[in-house]
Amino acid sequence: MDTKWKSRKNAISTLFFVLGASLLLGGMAGIMKYKPGSVRLWQVNELFSGDYQNNYRFQDYITGWFWNFLTMAAGGSLKESWGYGMDGYWGSDYYGGWGDAPDTWDYDWEAWQDSMDEMVDIYEETEEEWDRLQNEGAWEEAKDALERMKAYEEEIRNLQEMIQSEMGAGRGYGLKEPTQEEKDKIAQEYHERIKGDKNLLYLISYEDQVLYANTDLLSGDGNMTAPKGYNFLLYFDGEKVRIIKDGKELDIYGDGYYREESSWQEAGERRNWYVPGYLNFPVDEGMKKVKIFLAAAKEPVLYLDGSYGTGGNGQYNNSLYWMNYYCQENREILKKEAVYFILGLVLLLSAFPGRKSRREMRAKIAGIQAKIWVEGKLLLMVGLLFFVFIIIKCSKQDYGLWQELGEIYYYEYGFTNLFIYGKEILKNAHPAAWIVLFWGIYLVFNDFKYNKKIWNSSLCGKLYSTFSVKSLSWPPARKMALRNSTLFVGATCYVLLLLGMIFWRIRGYGNNRLIFVLVVFGAAAFLLTAYFVGRKNMETAKDMEIISGYISEIRNGNYQGIEGKAAGHDLQKVMAELEDIRHGLEEAVEEQLKSQKMKVELIANVSHDIKTPLTSIISYVQFLKQEEELPEHVKDYVKILDEKSQRLKNMVQDVFAVSKAASGELPMHMEKLDFGKLLCQTMADMEEQIEGSQVSFRTDLPESPVMIMADGQRMYRVFQNLFQNAIQYSLAGSRVYVTLQTKGVMASASVKNASLMELDKEKDFAERFTRGDESRTDGGSGLGLAIAQSFTEACGGEFLWETDADLFVVKVSFRIAE
Amino acid sequence: MGECVLVVDDDREIVKAISILLKGEGYEVLKAYDGLQALDILSTHPVKLVLIDVMMPKLDGLSALMRIREKQNIPIIVLSAKSEDSDKVLGLSMGADDYVAKPYNPQELAARVKSHLRRYTSLGDIHTRRGEDEIVNGRLSFKTDERVLYADGEAIRLTATETKIVELFMRNLGRVFPAEEIYRRVWEEEAFASEKTVMVHIRRIREKLELNPKEPEYIKVVWGIGYKMEKQEKCN
Question: Which residue in chain A has the smallest CA separation from B202?
Fold first, then answer.
């Protein structure tokens, strides 16, 4: 119940607010629109007084008449009189014929000549246009232009005839002054035309002699009492003008200077009366004899001309009547608008206490707005503006805006005019347009206030995100293919468009400008697509580079310190997988290193533990060996013990060395040395062993030194082992070949020997404890090749061995040092 | 009775073996089975040389070594199952005079003991005798006027060629000579098959002056480059 009431209250409050604001705004706009120009907004009394004389137009009319009368009195030509002349201003104004100067029956052949020249200009322009259109192949338009040209031609001919006839008839005064008779005739005619409208009473006298008057209610003696029904009096005594309105005299001259305070466009400002008598606007001698008395009716009535004798009846100009009529009409409207305004104000005030709950309402509206895509909002906005435009258009208040808009292109003043017209339109726009505009802006503000980034919810964005999220799970190749095909489709569309246009042109359809615009837009769109696709692909290419760098780093054994690198976009998944592999590899290598280290430690400990008892064994065997009195067979036993203990010692040392070398913990002392010399020295060092063996060594070493980087001591051990092997396992009487060759940047030494035993092809001789002859029990530890291999590799060399039938070949290669 | 040698090892059999070995050489042997015991004996007996194991209960060899060095300047040979270079360097830097890895070669051990004792007892004043006509390197000294090489004060019988080679090395301690250069300077001929010839001579010299010719300390092969006389850091 409570919530129901609350929501109802909310709704009412909102309704009040919306209605109130609309009415207030509408009322305001209406008042602004319909208020008399000369009345300020806060002059409430005058605003609703309905006094048509407050309107500045009334002032213009009065001064217009005044000047005409002055001219008539002074005997001047109305045509060339001050102020509002005969042609030009009258009737051509947007406000419709105000003021009732004589009809433009008094033609001016000069004006005709002007308009004819203008016509010729237009004709020539049209001719050019026709030419152009023909060239462009716009046949329809060209035809139209041709029609117009014909019309203009016709008009020009008419004008020419008129000018000639005028001049021929002698009626064209040309530049010459009309005669006094003619002037008087014009003045008389003017008097005849307006005298029937008794809303304006006038009395014109010259040298105290009444020339024209349409009433006897006025006297030329300066008696300023207004006749009944007339509240506006203007009296000119030849020096100054006095105006009495509603019995009160108006201050006409102010500080005594006349100022053009505003132009007609800025209507609404009170302006100085355009009458003589200012310090800067004195009267001449002729005028001093003139007296003019004017009176305007308080409530003008319609006067009709009933002169059937002279050819029909009709209305007099009745300017004041119609002025008053419209003024009254406006007053009614103003009243109505004021009611709206006040009602709106009241509603707004009554909605004021509920403003807090309205905030919820606003938020709710914003919530709805948030769901609308920004494109929809834009569309709505455009629709709204269109609606406002329609309102303006329908109330026929667009004035010449569209024409003026066109003129901007042709005339410099076009822009200023546009501004003035715009102002005019805004001022006179239908209140509904204002209301619609206001609520549109209100909603936009509301949206911005609550939803902040309104473009977050856009159809394009949504499409893009769904598309890209969807494509994210695709394999990169598919994504790239999609992109490429997009580009291809784009290119195809563009080419088709171009081809279509070329075809179109050949057939002569369409116009150049449209095609140009389409081509430019098409090119821009195509280039943009190409750019984006290219950029995406470039990103992918960069990512591929990163990934390949990553792979090669992993290949080079660098598992750490590359985590910072990341490829995004298409290859994110690949990158993640690669990272997994890297991680796995890192872990495996670490694990392996750890276990290797443990193994080495274990071996070190074990060998240490073995060495201690072994020391005793060796020592006591030594003592036993020194015993002289042992029986022969015991001496044999001791000999075996000695051999085996020595072998055990070697084995322990070798096992330790191999495990250390294999784990990479062997301390290395790398230096530049001569490979050939190393071989020589090793052989020289083993000279005795070689001499004492049943094999002979054949060497083939280069004369010049072959420098390599290695640890000499370790490499000595390598070749010592190799030569030892060769000596031990070679066929008796065979030769061992030791060669050193350089090939490119590599130097490789090889040791070849014919094996005593048949070589098992499957056997890995470099494997630890592997021996050619399983049953052999010499001093070797069986680690010779293993040590040679691991030491060579620890020095950065390459150790290869192969068997060819009974030929056993070992190759040790190093990179030649510079 | 000969000089008094202290053997320290927690392995009694090894101590016994060494003692048998050294007694055979004519030394008096004292036995200790841990570091503290060794320090005790050292404070009460006129010990001339110490053989000490590294890994022992109570007080390990290296700590005991440092304690001994605080008071005495006698030769100390470290015996250890740890045979790596780093272990050797550590032992020597702690004040040991020598480092013998287990399992040792009994003859070598005896030779080393003998060498150190000789130098310590009879050649204690070796520094004073050093002059312009004598080049000293570790336990070796070469008298340039006599052109005789002494090892632990004993003259070593060398052939004329060997003497020339030794002189070359002693005059250029630490310098590496390629075989060709040695050949040229010693034989004064153009080098031919120099490597083998030089090697043969060097091996012979080694057998005469090295304690363990298989693991030479003085004349060393710099593999792939040449030969050199190692400059001994300890010249006492």
Answer: A685
Q: CB B200 to CB A684 under 8 A?
A: yes
pLDDT for A215 equals: 79
Cα separation, A756 vs A759, whole angstroms: 9
ipTM of the assembly?
0.80
Is there a single domain that holds both residue A700 and residue A766?
A: yes
Q: Do A710 and B224 touch (CB under 8 A)?
A: yes
Is the domain of A632 the same as that of A763? Answer: no
Say whether the peptide bond before residue A476 is cis (omega within 30 degrees of 0). Answer: no
| CATH annotation of B4-121 | 3.40.50.2300
CATH assignment at residue A756: 3.30.565.10
Closest CA to A218 of A232, A192, A67: A232
Given CB atoms, is B192 within the 8 Å cutoff of chain A? no
In this complex, do B83 and A653 lie within 8 Å of one another by their Cβ atoms? yes
Contact A687 B200 (CB under 8 A): yes
Q: Does A440 touch chain B (CB under 8 A)?
A: no
Task: Take residue A746 and report the two structure tokens written for it.
Answer: 């590599």
The residues in A 621-640 lying below 8 A from B, measured between CB atoms, are 622-623
pTM of the model: 0.47
Cα separation, A724 vs A733, in Å, equals: 16
Return the CATH number at A620: 1.20.58
- Asked, for residue A704, whether it belongs to a domain, the answer is yes
Paired strand residues for B211: none
Q: Say what the pLDDT of residue A64 is.
A: 82
CB contact under 8 Å between B224 and A684, yes or no, is no
Å from A716 to nearest chain B CA?
7
Is any Cβ of chain A less than 8 angstroms from the Cβ of B111? no
Residue from A88, A393, A69 nearest A200 by CA: A69
CATH number of B134-229: 1.10.10.10
In this complex, do B224 and A687 lie within 8 Å of one another by their Cβ atoms?
A: no
Considering only the beta carbons, identify the residue of B18, B81, B222 that sits closest to A712.
B222
| A666-675 tens-digit pLDDT | 788 888 888 8
Q: What percent of chain A has pLDDT over 90?
A: 0
Q: How many domains does the structure of chain A reveal?
A: 3
Show the domain range for A660: 590-666
A19 C-beta neighbours (distance < 10 Å), count: 15
In a domain, A746, yes or no: yes
Give me the total of CB pairs closer than 8 Å, taking one residue from chain A and one from chain B. Answer: 98
The verdict on residue A624 lying in a domain is yes
Helix (H, G, I), strand (E, B) or coil at A388: helix
Residue of chain A with shortest Cα separation from B199 = A684
More confident residue, A777 or A257: A257
Tell me which residue of A328, A301, A242, A261 sits closest to A53, measured CA to CA: A328
